[in-house]
Specification:
- The complex is a heterodimer of chains A (762) and B (291).
- Helix content of chain A is 25%, strand content 24%.
- Chain A has a seven-stranded mixed sheet with strand order 3-7-1-14-11-12-13. Chain A has a five-stranded mixed sheet with strand order 9-18-17-16-10, sandwiched between helices.
- Chain B has eleven helices and 15 strands.
- In chain B, the strands form four sheets. In chain B, strands 4-5-10-6-7 form a five-stranded antiparallel sheet.
- The longest helix of chain B is centred in the C-terminal third of the chain and has 21 residues.
- Chain B is 34% helix and 25% strand.
- Chain B is α+β, with helices and mostly antiparallel strands and 291 residues long.
- Classes of the chains: A alpha+beta (762), B alpha+beta (291).
- Chains A and B meet through helix 4 and helix 18 of A and helix 11 of B.
């Protein structure tokens, strides 16, 4: 399975991004720019209550607006999609609300018009009345709340481990995952210290600068969907299922994306666009505004309780974790987050006795799904704050406590899977070196106090998933690479082309990457969870090897030297002219063993581990609580980088994104209604927020079962930013924040508490 | 956004006449940076917009007046003011404040008059210009008046301008040896709206403050002068104790509201700290006017 790099090939070189010129000259394709003949624009009318039965829906005034084509409600959707519920884990989300609304902002009706402004104007005139139902917003309350979001659970058939939830009633628990290892009680009884803390994270948004957009185009007996999606193959399958059509009648095309970050996975607007286009028998575009993104998919708010048994020398002998994930009104991929991330909740530490309980909860908030890290940043926030608090309790160096408990190569992780190619130790040590951890540190004076902190986290790649690729070599030796990986800015086109070019011995520029088009490009599970470079990378490598082997065989068949004959000469001799193709195919699925339902244990839970650590230096203004991150170091195990420059920018961009989630990003709610749904009131980091000193490093390592020693990198830079900064704040001014974001007001209030003079509200 | 009528008068008086109407959704538009956002959000649905872009060129100029004052036409863009050598020489604090005012795309089209008349308390220039003692001259179809800028503001997004009354010009008096500073406190991203703005202008005699003008914005519904803080500094040697008195007085008298940026209690603390820091920054700087 291992392929070695040559010293001169494109793999391992910082090849410039293939799409760079098209993007900076404005010629790259985006769905927002797509205009089709006869196309209608859809504008969504949304619920204003968090939980309620629809008593009356008056669409008459909207229909009366001149220029409106039609107004569509959930009932009309049913005339083209009989059972209009979708979702990757649960078939719980209606295309438009039926009978009930479950969050403020849920789509209730749609206006179609040739002019988007008319559609918007008419949508304002729809009147809805609701009988409000009790609502639940907090994830812990949802465990026992009388307010029930869904009458019955409706797991999708695709995941065998959810089957037992079928038809379960009167619960908001969409999934509970448990892991049990060793004897936790005995270890707690024997411990020198038992340390317990509760942490919280807030609901935040992906904010891709390209908001969601889908265009559905009926084409005779078929349907073409142009969409800004990270999962074209899934969209095809799910739309075919909803329509009861064979997959071959649904075509999904994805050009460039203006960012995804996990927002654009599975079905988002595609089912709505499909139903509308079938009703109108015309192409329909559903394009959200920036504001509407706040009502579509978000990142889970969480509550995390973590308790450790610690010996006097700093050894952690047992850990108990309970995690409540606020999934909002529809499960989306939340149950996968609960399980696939849940099993790492005890951290990258070698702990004999572990008990984890992880709950996916329904609440009456906008749905939560995957966001760059798939739940890992929430978990690392808890366990790495907790680690520093243990160190403080024991008056030990936080680095030393981590060293003492480090999960080392060859040792079993909490699931029982033995760690291989997880450079936890190396990543931690490089972080300490980059931070000059052993050197004296300037702690500031006057109002400004300085501190520093470190944190380290890890993630298992989601498994088992499949990728398929095709390499088509043309007679002139150039080639096309057909792959359904979506380049949403992470540089996958370039990396995949580098791999194909490496195997075929050609220039990267001679490889054309054909963008996802399910009529043309083969299956891929999705561009998510940092899985593409590993899974699709292997598939591309195998497809290219298959093509190469066929070229070699062709040379043999023609009696030509496989080493010295130029490729065009092979085709010329075979076909009498420059004609024909050689097509190579490759697919990949890793080995995997599903965790035991009762214990959560598995000997083979993931094909690879991602490891990311952060070191932070901060300046805290003790008079205002304002925190300035002056230095941010991100160190990661990404295997051997295929493209070192893109790896660095992936690490730094992930860290900057997480910096926003750490310092100030938060969705504010009033009775379930988002009150800051715009970029004026929901701020994301800009250039001026980037720390003065920022470094990203991929440690020198190799993923032995990865393509050319590589593995995924897209999420790794997010893992440890939040706890590293919180740890630095405590180091600077002695206050510990346990909830994100770490706002100036929160720091200032904590400082006043510590002084015994809490800030009184007016 | 729904269709609307766009009028493009050639003179400011004509514009004022067009705005002198009973229809409240008839609004003026200059750079459009605020109006367009409100229209996109659906909070403003005008029947007619009266564009000021074609009015007389004299309202886009920056000139020095006979008494050494700086006169800014209402249609002067913020970037023109930012780059103006005359403004830099007259009151460098204006040029400094503009550098972090919104972003270059907004500054290129937003105008001085629109910036002031929008009456959003998060704007940067109102506190600065009030601290510098600026006055505004307005024009209506048949009248004109001049009054101190601080009297322009009646409440959140509310001015004292009458129906059909438009800002024509802003006049900033000669600053001489006064020293000024503007501190903008953003609590989320660096380019966020301020949670608090503090502008101070000090008339000093050695280490002693002869007169002080202190203005807060953003944390309050309108930009407002802090009289108690000003008198705490007047005729005082500026030392730590005086700064503490001024900060405490400012925190006591500012009418602060809770919002997405923070609680009132917290922002009161910010006022306390930032007023003292702004005074310190002004004293550490150069005299405003460079002859």
């Amino acid at each position: 399975m291992t392929a070695k790099t040559s010293t001169s090939g494109p793999v391992g070189r910082s090849v410039p991004r293939l799409e760079g010129r098209a993007k900076v000259t404005g010629s790259a394709d985006y769905v927002h720019n797509l205009v089709l003949p006869g196309m209608l624009h859809a504008k969504i009318f949304r619920s204003t209550v968090a939980h309620g039965r629809i008593r009356r829906l008056d669409t008459g005034p909207a229909r009366a607006v001149h220029g409106v084509h039609s107004v569509v409600t959930g009932d009309e959707i049913r005339t083209v999609v009989a059972n209009p519920y979708y979702g990757p884990a649960f078939h719980d989300q209606p295309i438009l609300a039926l009978e009930k609304v479950r969050y403020a902002g849920e789509p209730v009706a749609v206006v179609l018009a040739a002019d988007p402004h008319i559609a918007e104007e008419a949508a304002h005139r729809i009147v809805a009345e609701y009988d409000e139902l009790p609502a639940v917003f907090d994830e812990v309350e949802a465990m026992t709340s009388k307010a029930i979001v869904h009458e019955a659970l409706k797991p999708a058939g695709t995941f065998p481990d959810l089957k037992h939830l079928e038809g379960r009633r009167n619960t908001n628990v969409a999934l509970d995952f448990h892991l049990r290892r060793g004897d936790v009680e005995a270890a707690f009884a024997a411990a020198d210290h038992v340390v317990e803390h509760t942490f919280r994270t807030q609901q935040v948004l992906h904010v891709p600068l390209e908001p969601f957009v889908s265009v559905a185009e009926p084409t005779g007996q078929s349907l073409t969907i142009h969409t800004s999606s990270q999962t074209p193959s899934f969209v095809r399958g799910e739309i075919a299922r909803l329509l009861g059509w064979p997959e071959s009648r649904v075509r999904v095309k994805v050009p460039h994306l203006g960012g995804g970050f996990g927002a654009k996975v599975y079905v988002k607007l595609e089912a709505l666009a499909t139903a509308l286009s079938l009703l109108a028998r015309r192409p329909v575009k559903v394009a959200l505004s920036m504001e509407e993104q706040f009502y579509t998919i978000t990142k889970h708010a969480t509550t995390l309780r973590i308790k450790s048994a610690v010996m006097g020398d700093g050894r952690i002998t047992a850990r108990e974790c309970e995690v409540w994930w606020n999934g909002g009104a529809y499960a989306d991929i939340g149950p996968r987050v609960t399980q696939k991330s849940g099993f790492t909740a005890a951290g990258p530490y070698d702990i004999e006795n572990v008990r984890i309980a992880s709950y996916a909860l329904y609440t009456n908030l906008p749905p939560a799904g995957a966001l760059r890290g798939f739940g890992i940043p929430q978990l690392v926030w808890a366990y790495e704050c907790h680690t520093d608090m243990i160190a403080r309790r024991l008056a030990m160096d936080p680095l030393e406590v981590r060293r003492r408990n480090m999960l080392r190569e060859g040792r079993p992780q909490a699931t029982g899977t033995v760690m291989r190619d997880a450079a936890i130790e190396n990543v931690l040590e490089r972080t300490a070196t980059q931070m000059d951890w052993s050197r004296p540190f300037d702690r500031g004076d006057g109002a400004i106090r300085r501190g520093r902190g470190i944190a380290i986290g890890f993630k298992a790649s989601i498994s088992p998933t499949t990728s398929v690729a095709i390499v088509n070599v043309y007679a002139d030796a150039s080639c096309s690479l057909y792959c359904s990986t979506v380049d949403m800015g992470q540089g996958s086109d370039t990396a995949m082309a580098q791999i194909a070019a490496e195997v075929l011995g050609t220039a990267v520029e001679s490889v054309k990457v054909v963008h996802p088009d399910t009529d043309v490009t083969p299956y891929d599970m999705g561009t998510l969870g940092s899985r593409s470079l590993y899974h699709m990378g292997h598939a591309v490598r195998r497809a290219a090897e298959d093509a190469r082997d066929k070229l070699l065989a062709l040379a043999g068949e023609l009696g030509l030297s496989p080493e010295t004959t130029p490729v065009p000469d092979l085709f010329r001799k075979k076909y009498g002219m420059l004609a024909g193709n050689v097509v190579g195919v490759g697919s990949f699925i890793p080995s995997y063993k599903s965790p035991d339902h009762d214990t959560g244990l598995s000997p083979d839970v993931t094909p690879f581990w991602m490891v990311g650590a952060t070191g932070a230096e901060v300046e805290v203004d003790t008079e205002t609580g304002q925190v300035r991150v002056t230095k941010l170091v991100n160190v990661a195990d990404v295997g051997k980088p295929i493209n070192p420059k893109i790896v660095k920018t992936q690490l730094s961009s992930a860290a900057i994104m997480q910096l926003g989630f750490t310092m100030f990003e938060i969705m504010n709610f009033d009775a379930g209604q988002v009150t800051n749904a715009s970029l004026a009131d929901y701020k994301i980091p800009g250039m001026l927020d980037i720390p003065r000193s920022m470094a990203s490093e991929a440690v020198d390592t190799e993923q032995h079962n990865g393509p050319f020693g590589a593995k995924g990198v897209g999420e790794t830079g997010t893992f440890s930013v939040s706890p590293a900064i919180a740890n630095a704040i405590e180091d600077a001014v002695g206050v510990r924040l346990t909830s994100l974001p770490l706002t100036a007001e929160a720091v200032y209030r904590a400082l006043r508490e510590r002084r015994g003079d809490p800030l009184k509200d007016e | 956004m729904t269709p609307f009528e766009l009028a493009e008068p050639r003179t400011l008086r004509e514009a004022a006449a067009l705005l002198d109407t009973d229809e409240p959704s008839v609004r003026p538009i200059a750079g459009g940076t605020a109006v367009m956002l409100m229209m996109k959000m659906g909070v403003l649905r005008p029947a007619r917009l009266v564009s000021l872009r074609s009015i007389e060129k004299q309202y886009s100029g920056i000139v020095s007046g006979p008494a050494g004052e700086l006169r800014l036409g209402a249609m002067t863009t913020l970037s023109a003011l930012e780059r103006s050598a005359a403004a830099l020489k007259h009151a460098a604090v204006i040029s400094r404040a503009l550098r972090s005012l919104s972003n270059v795309r907004v500054r290129n089209v937003a105008t001085v008059g629109g910036h002031l008349a929008h009456a959003d308390p998060h704007m940067d220039l109102p506190p600065v210009l009030i601290a510098l003692g600026a006055s505004v001259t307005t024009l209506a179809a048949d009248a004109s008046r001049t009054f101190p800028l601080e009297q322009l503001y009646a409440g959140y997004l509310e001015t004292t301008l009458g129906r059909g009354e438009l800002i024509a010009e802003v006049s900033v008096p000669r600053q001489g040896s006064r020293r000024a500073a503007y501190l903008k406190c953003t609590l989320r991203s660096a380019d966020d709206w301020p949670a608090l703005g503090v502008a101070v202008a000090l008339d000093t005699d050695g280490a002693e403050v002869r007169d002080a003008r202190i203005v807060v914005s953003a944390a309050t519904d309108t930009p407002m002068r802090l009289a108690a803080a000003e008198s705490a500094l007047r005729s005082a040697r500026v030392d730590d104790a005086a700064l503490r008195r001024a900060g405490d007085a400012a925190a006591d008298e500012a009418a602060i509201v809770s919002d997405v940026h923070g609680s009132a209690a917290y922002k009161r603390q910010l006022v306390r700290v930032y007023v003292a820091r702004a005074v310190r920054a002004a004293l550490a700087g150069n005299p405003e006017t460079r002859d």
